[in-house]
Amino acid sequence: MDPGLGKTTAVAVLLQEILRDSEIRQKGVLICLSTKRAIQDLVTEANLAAADFAVVTSDPLLSGLSPTLPEEAPVLFTTQQMLTSKSSGRRFAEIGEFRFCGKVRKLRIWDESMLPASPIVLDADEISRLLGRIRPVNGTLADQLDQLANSAKRTPGGRVLQLPRIATALSKATSGHGGITSEDKDIIDRLISLSDTHVRVRKEIRGGSRSCTASPGKSTILVGFGNELPEDLAPAVVLDASGRVRRTYQLWQEERFSLVRLKSVIRDYSKLTVHVWDHWAGRGTIYSPARYPAMRQALERTIQKDPWSNWLVVHHKQKGHNPDLFAELQGRVSGKGGPLHSLTWGMHHGTNLYRGCDRVILAGLFYTPRSHYEGLVYAASGIAPDRRQATSRDIEQMQLAELLHDIYQAACRGKVRSGSSQECQLYLMASRKSGVRRALPGLFPGCTVKDWFPPAATRLPPRVQSALNEIETALNSGGPVAFTKVQKALRMKSSQFNQHIR
Question: In terms of Cα–Cα distance, which of 424, 478, 458 is closest to 312?
Answer without folding.
Answer: 424
